[in-house]
Amino acid sequence: MPETSKSTEPRLILPRPVALVGLMGVGKTTVGRRLAEALAVPFRDADEEIEKAAGLSVSDIFAAFGEAGFRDGEQKVISRLLDDGPQILATGGGAFVQPATHDIIRQKAVTVWLKTDLRVIARRVANRNHRPLLRDRDPMEVLREHEAKRYPFYAKADITVDTGDQSHGKSVELVIGALKRFLETK
Ligand SMILES: Nc1ncnc2c1ncn2[C@@H]1O[C@H](COP(=O)(O)OP(=O)(O)OP(=O)(O)O)[C@@H](O)[C@H]1O
Ligand SMILES: O=C(O)C1=C[C@@H](O)[C@@H](O)[C@H](O)C1
Ligand SMILES: [Mg+2]
């Protein structure tokens, strides 16, 4: 019989939530959504869930309650979401850098650091205005600061996937491959 099937890979069954961590603009939301679809599990975006819980945009939460107020809500929302079984959770770029939130995510999820060259990220976040930490700043300068402060936290993730400058689809394949290898050793 001719080979007609496009993919013979068995579907990966997630035993726990998977949390995506990494810098803003690296692809946690857009890659995460496609990853969840490929694995047939729910997708959640922590920033969106915080917005729903507060009835305010991330920018408005920063403006009304400051970054500390945002971080407090972020911790509660992430902890609640991760009690909800296998899923893909896109965390906000700063979540894994807050010690208490970091510990909650590490306890409750398999953690995946999505990583790519800062120049690729700077290009992706250019001309967008919904990230308060980038507003009125040179994106490359902010990203370099975040690299210095945040990479030591992100590096504690269970898995690191360098997605380069490839398509969302290719990034999803890379993450699934890395998850399979990681879960096989558990
Ligand atoms: N692998 C990729 N290939 C092509 N485009 C990408 C990829 N990852 C992200 N992008 C693009 O970069 C932009 C930012 O991606 P996304 O919003 O998913 O980042 P994020 O990590 O969720 O950022 P934040 O922490 O600010 O929420 C989007 O326009 C998205 O389409
Ligand atoms: O990198 C950060 O600290 C942030 C990233 C976004 O996902 C949002 O959570 C918010 O804009 C803060
Ligand atoms: Mg996002």
From TrEMBL:
GO terms for cellular component: cytosol. It is found in: Cytoplasm. Its cofactor is Mg(2+). Substrate binds at D47, R71, G93, R150. ATP binds at G25, V26, G27, K28, T29, T30, R131, Q166. PROSITE patterns: SHIKIMATE_KINASE. InterPro entries: P-loop_NTPase (IPR027417), Shikimate/glucono_kinase (IPR031322), Shikimate_kinase/TSH1 (IPR000623), Shikimate_kinase_CS (IPR023000). GO terms for molecular function: ATP binding; magnesium ion binding; shikimate kinase activity. It catalyses: shikimate + ATP = 3-phosphoshikimate + ADP + H(+). Pathway: Metabolic intermediate biosynthesis; chorismate biosynthesis; chorismate from D-erythrose 4-phosphate and phosphoenolpyruvate: step 5/7. Its EC number is 2.7.1.71. Mg(2+) binds at T29. GO terms for biological process: amino acid biosynthetic process; aromatic amino acid family biosynthetic process; chorismate biosynthetic process. Monomer. Catalyzes the specific phosphorylation of the 3-hydroxyl group of shikimic acid using ATP as a cosubstrate. Belongs to the shikimate kinase family. This is Shikimate kinase. The gene is aroK.
